[in-house]
Amino acid sequence: MIVNLRTFKKKFELNKRSFRTFLTKLENNPPQGLHRTMVEVDKEVWGEIDCLSCGNCCKKMTPTFTPADIKRIAGYFNMTPDAFREKWLTFDKKEGDWQNVKQPCQFLNLTDNKCSIYPIRPADCAGFPHLTKKNPTDYIHVHKQNIQYCPATYKMVEKMMDRIKK
After folding, report:
1. CA nearest neighbour of 96 among 65, 118, 72
2. Could you tell me if 10 and 56 are in contact, meaning their C-beta atoms sit under 8 angstroms apart?
3. Which one, of 103, 97, 96, lies nearest residue 70 by Cα?
4. Do 137 and 34 meet the contact criterion of CB atoms below 8 Å apart?
């Protein structure tokens, strides 16, 4: 399904309080089989969401670049890790992370929402939106942030609310 970002933003604004309340309840009192349910919902979500019609993660958010990411991507550009950091990244002292210096991501092609470094993208990008992590409660805080930007996360929370209320 093609994502309409204007409609998505309106839906988020209407539901953000109930979604975040639900996620907090999941975090504080996870139901039995939560990971299994999330894996099932994940399969449904990806049958309904086309990431390339959105690209919001690359437009509105920034990944964390690990030292391995920096070394790998710098090598791809025939740069030293220091030169790569200087050209493309900034250090967030509060978080202690290397992040993109600008948004949207410098590696995003805005005409088709494709990543120009997709095969070697940061691990944070490869795992995004982190829907099926082994210990789901460790990622609830991430989902609370992502529902604002990611239609797949939004859809996952919507489906989880429906399943867990039953």
Report:
1. 65
2. no
3. 97
4. yes
Parent domain of 92: 64-109+116-127
Per-residue pLDDT, 101 = 94
**End-to-end Cα distance, the chain:** 26
How many domains is the chain partitioned into structurally? 2
Tokens 């690209």 — which residue?
55
Determine what percent of the chain is predicted with pLDDT higher than 70: 99
Which residues are within 8 A (CB) of 89 and not within 5 positions of it... i.e. 6 or more apart? 65, 70, 98, 99, 100, 101
Using one digit for the tens of pLDDT, what is the confidence trace for 118-130? 999 999 999 999 8
Backbone φ and ψ of 22, nearest 5° = -60, -45
Q: What is the mean pLDDT of the chain?
A: 93
**Residue 131 · residue 156 · CB < 8 Å:** yes
